[in-house]
Amino acid sequence: MQLDPSDLRLLAALQRDSTQTAQELGDALHMSASQAGRRRQRLETEGYIAAYRAHLSPEKVGLTVEAFIQIVMATHTEENARDFVRLTRTRPEVVGAWTLTGEADYLLRIYCADLTALNNLVQQVLLPHPAVSRVQSQIVMERVKSDAPLPV
Fold first, then answer.
1. Residue 32 has what DSSP assignment?
2. Taking the alpha carbons of 107, 110, 114, 119 in that order, is the dihedral positive or negative?
């Protein structure tokens, strides 16, 4: 299905604040509450809206270290890749993981309570993993732009 300008405005509004009621969305988008509600439901059903979640403050919940870790695989086998992906999905510190082109094979986004916890993750979990050849960490000093809405 093709998205029209009203759909795009609705998606943008929901990315800014997904707690808005149909009435609030309708008012902001110059449509009735029922129109806004039906459009929202259709966009959910068709998969344009994948999920709703609260955006937590890492610092408030005790996660003071954010890092990005590049992983280079020892060998590129299907089993190594499967095992490593399973590891990323089971470690709560790993909040994002991507496969990459270029020098590194994976990029992990990590949140930890402190540097000791980050060191333990790297030294006791990632480096000993048989699929991993090299680990390179970058600790975030300051977040200058938070995860932003998609440019719809």
1. -
2. negative
